[in-house]
Amino acid sequence: MGYYQIMQLVMSILFAILGAVMFHFAIFAVVGIFCNKKYPKTEKINKYGIIIPARNEEAVVAGLIESVQKNNYPQDKLQIFVIAHNCHDRTAEIARMHGATVYEYNNPEENTMGFAFKYLFSCIERDYGSQNYDGFFLFNADNILDKDYISNMNDAFEYYNHDSVITSFRNSKNFGTNLISGLYGLYFTIGCRLESRGRTVLGCSTRVQGTGYLINSNLVKKGWPYVSLTEDWEFSADQILYDNKIAYCDAAVFYDEQPTTLKITWRQRVRWSRGHLLVFYARFIELVKKLFRKDTKHRVSLYDITVQMLPSPLIFFVLNILQIVLSLTAPLIDKSVTFHYVLFGDSMNFFTSQGMLFSLSRSSTS
User: Fold this and answer.
1) Could you tell me the pTM of the whole model?
2) Around Cβ 103, how many Cβ atoms within 10 Å?
3) Bridge partners, 299 (sequence order)
4) What average pLDDT values come out for the chain (366 residues) when binned by 10 residues?
5) CA 18/CA 16 separation, integer angstroms
6) Number of Cβ atoms within 10 Å of the Cβ of 281
7) Is 48 helix (H, G, I), strand (E, B) or coil?
8) Hey, which residues does 104 pair with through a beta bridge?
């Protein structure tokens, strides 16, 4: 076996290992397609705080507040909090006009949504006491709630005895605006149905994606520490590290406004990617260590979030580039291999792991 065949074998093994590590994603997807977790109706009416961070959201914040007020849930058990964060418009004024309790916070150095949450929870603790609420819903100002959203989330919250974070189905407000918004809507639908639903059915923790989730008030009695670019990733990782679970309620639907331009899409994806890498750097080693501890309770959930934390697109990209470079240098090292064979001898499929496996099988039998 020559250099080229050895290189192809090693790369095939690496891709196979990555595929095996992530194979359980396919199981969750199949289960999510055919199964769903339904929660029995409860008579218990819990008291909730509705958390809404808003930065220059005068055009949409009233819509979310009104959708909360129109929910089929006792309004005396809900209190709406809006944090007007680094605003330069009438967001705070409009929120107050619609009956919300509003706080304003201006600090250009603290501009992520996590800082808005941090400041607002400190104000709630000071003025009301976080323990006066059973839980808190976290939203974006541009969200809209289905009329049964809160009651369905309350059913799930009671089902898990307040011990689990509950996330919900993220639908799109502007699915039909253009191709970009439609693809975003499809992306989040797939995420909810093929990721979160299967995990919950099989008893594995899912993760929160953005907003639209419910937490026990005990989680914020000492404040909100998650202020990174992707505080949802950071929060999810810590919940599983601390042996808490994150469950999904498919019946609770909220609507989110999606980007409609390439400029906004690019900026958002770059921010998400940077935030993901930062959380990977900060949490990955701790997750791996916890995975091998004897006292770990939810080992499958921990393994799953650890694998999700991997920057897998970057890993696959690097491996493909490495395979291409090694293939193109093969004729310089192994005189029996020609550039023509490298480029065209494998049916032009050496850019994929399938092509590498096909090449290896042909080479080993020739």
Assistant:
1) 0.87
2) 19
3) none
4) 82 91 94 95 97 96 97 97 96 97 94 94 97 97 97 98 96 89 89 93 94 96 92 94 94 93 88 87 93 89 94 89 85 69 54 43 41
5) 5
6) 11
7) strand
8) 84
Domains and CATH numbers, the chain: 3-18+312-365 (no CATH), 48-304 (3.90.550.10)
pLDDT value, residue 355: 45
217-243 b/e (C-beta count within 10 Å ≥ 16 → b): bebbeeebebbbbbbbbbbbbbbbbee
**Residue 133 one-letter amino acid:** Y
Tokens of 6: 């050895």
Q: Nearest 5°: CA angle at 302, between 299 and 308? A: 140
Contact 110, 35 (CB under 8 A): no
Give me the helices (H) in the chain, please: 3-21, 23-34, 61-69, 91-97, 113-127, 149-159, 179-190, 197-201, 231-241, 262-291, 299-309, 312-333, 339-344, 353-365
